[in-house]
C-alpha cells in the first residue's frame, strides 16, 4: 500500500477530537498484527479514545520514536468543496481531506513503510507513538509517554511529524488556555455609584493583558527565531452583562499565553495576577463581594527548547539533505517528550498553512518526500 493509499484509509476515519478514535486505532492494530509487530494501547479514562505504541525492531534501548496525533479539528461551518472525510485528488498535485497535512500524512508515510521495515534487520527500533486529543490541548500524549518511559527501553530520539514541509524544527512556544471571571455588583445604570461593572473592570484587565507584550519587548525578552519574537497573550472570547441599562454583575473572558522557551509561564501569569489583585482590591472598596478569579482550561503544553537535540537534528539533516533548522509559534506534543529528557525535533510533510482550513490538502510531492524519509530511516537503522 502506498502512502497515498494509506492516507485514503486514515482520512476516512472522522477522528474529530470530540469523537472516538478507536476505529482508526483498531485499523492500525490489525495492520501491526498482520506483520507481527508488538503494540500497546494506552486508553483515556473513559475508554472512548486510545493512544497506541508499537515497536518495529529489537527490544533494546535507542532508536527513534515517530510521533503523530490521530485527532483532527472539526469541519462544521467551513466551505469545503468536497467531502472532508474522503480523500480527493483533483488532479492539481494535491490530496484534499481533513487531516491530510495535520497530521495523518505523516502517519500514512510511516504505516506504508511498515511492511518493508519488518523485513530489515534493525539494530535499534522504530517506535510508532499515535496519540489522541492533541488538538484540544495535547491531552493524550503524556500518559503514552509515561508508559513508554516506564515499561520499555529508553529511545534515543523523537521525531514529531507535524507539517513542516520536511524541514526540521527545533523550538516552539508553550501554550496555556485560561478563563477569567470578574464578579462585580449589579445596579441600575443610572446609579453608577451604587454598582461595580464587571465589564468595565474586565476591559481594563484585557487591555493590560495586551500591554504585557509591549513590556516584554521593552525588556528585550525576545527570540528572533520566531516570527512573533516575544511571548504572546491574546484574549479570544468575552461575555458579560444582561441588559444595556444594568451594570454588569459578571463578565468572563477566555485567553491564552504562548510563551517562548526562554520565558516561564508562571512569570507571565504573575504579571496579570498582580494587576487583577489591584483591580479586585479597588472593586471591593465599593462591593466587598467582588472578585476576579482566573482558572486554567488545560494543562500547560510545554515549550520545545533548542536543546539536547544535536544527534536527532543531524539524523534528520542526513536523511533529508542539509536544511536549516527553524522555530514555530504553534505548540505540539514535542515539548512533552522533551520534558521527559528525550531529544526531540519536529519534522513532517505538508504545510502548517493548510492546517485547520477548509479544503485542507497535502501536496503529492510532500507526501512522497515523507515516504522517502521513512525509507531512508529504515536503511539508517539497519544492523551494519
From TrEMBL:
GO terms for biological process: L-arginine biosynthetic process. It comes from the Bacteria. Residues 170-281 form the Peptidase M20 dimerisation domain. Keywords: Amino-acid biosynthesis, Arginine biosynthesis, Cobalt, Cytoplasm, Hydrolase, Metal-binding, Zinc. CDD domains: M20_ArgE (cd03894). Pfam families: M20_dimer, Peptidase_M20. Coiled coil: none annotated. InterPro entries: AcOrn-deacetyl, ArgE/DapE_CS, Bact_exopeptidase_dim_dom, Peptidase_M20, Peptidase_M20_dimer, Peptidase_M20A. The keyword Oxidoreductase does not apply. Its cofactor is Zn(2+). This is Acetylornithine deacetylase. Belongs to the peptidase M20A family. ArgE subfamily. One of its GO terms (molecular function) is metal ion binding.
Amino acid at each position: 500500500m502506498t502512502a497515498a493509499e494509506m492516507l485514503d484509509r486514515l482520512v476516512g476515519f472522522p477522528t474529530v477530537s470530540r469523537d472516538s478514535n478507536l476505529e482508526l486505532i483498531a485499523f492500525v492494530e490489525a495492520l501491526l498484527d498482520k506483520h507481527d509487530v508488538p503494540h500497546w494501547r494506552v486508553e483515556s479514562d473513559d475508554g472512548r479514545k486510545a493512544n497506541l505504541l508499537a515497536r518495529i525492531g529489537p527490544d533494546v534501548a535507542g532508536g527513534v520514536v515517530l510521533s503523530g496525533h490521530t485527532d483532527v479539528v472539526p469541519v462544521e461551518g467551513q466551505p469545503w468543496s468536497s467531502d472532508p472525510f474522503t480523500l480527493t485528488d483533483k488532479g492539481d498535485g494535491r490530496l484534499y481531506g481533513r487531516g491530510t497535512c495535520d497530521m495523518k500524512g505523516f502517519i500514512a508515510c510511516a504505516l506504508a513503510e511498515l511492511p518493508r521495515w519488518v523485513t530489515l534487520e534493525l539494530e535499534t527500533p522504530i517506535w510508532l507513538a499515535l496519540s489522541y486529543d492533541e488538538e484540544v490541548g495535547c491531552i493524550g500524549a503524556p500518559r503514552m509517554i509515561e508508559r513508554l518511559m516506564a515499561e520499555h527501553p529508553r529511545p534515543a530520539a523523537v521525531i514529531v511529524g507535524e507539517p513542516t514541509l520536511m524541514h526540521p524544527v527545533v523550538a516552539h512556544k508553550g501554550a496555556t488556555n485560561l478563563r477569567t471571571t470578574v464578579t462585580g455588583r449589579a445596579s441600575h445604570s443610572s446609579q453608577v455609584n451604587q454598582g461595580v461593572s464587571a465589564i468595565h473592570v474586565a476591559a481594563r484587565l484585557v487591555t493590560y493583558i495586551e500591554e504585557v507584550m509591549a513590556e516584554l519587548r521593552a525588556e528585550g525578552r525576545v527570540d528572533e527565531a520566531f516570527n512573533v519574537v516575544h511571548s504572546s497573550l491574546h484574549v479570544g472570547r468575552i461575555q458579560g452583562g444582561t441588559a444595556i441599562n444594568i451594570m454588569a454583575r459578571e463578565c468572563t473572558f477566555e485567553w491564552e499565553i504562548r510563551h517562548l522557551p526562554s520565558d516561564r509561564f508562571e512569570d507571565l501569569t504573575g504579571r496579570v495576577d498582580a494587576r487583577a489583585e489591584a483591580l479586585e482590591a479597588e472593586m471591593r472598596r465599593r462591593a466587598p463581594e467582588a472578585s476576579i478569579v482566573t482558572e486554567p482550561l488545560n494543562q500547560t503544553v510545554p515549550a520545545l527548547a533548542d536543546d539536547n537535540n544535536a544527534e536527532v537534528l543531524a539524523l534528520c539533516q542526513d536523511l533529508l539533505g542539509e536544511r536549516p533548522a527553524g522555530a514555530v509559534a504553534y505548540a505540539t506534543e514535542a515539548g512533552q517528550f522533551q520534558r521527559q529528557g528525550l531529544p526531540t525535533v519536529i519534522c513532517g510533510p505538508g504545510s502548517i498553512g493548510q492546517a485547520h482550513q477548509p479544503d485542507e490538502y497535502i501536496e503529492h510531492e510532500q507526501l512522497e518526500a515523507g515516504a522517502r524519509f521513512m525509507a531512508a530511516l529504515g536503511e539508517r537503522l539497519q544492523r551494519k
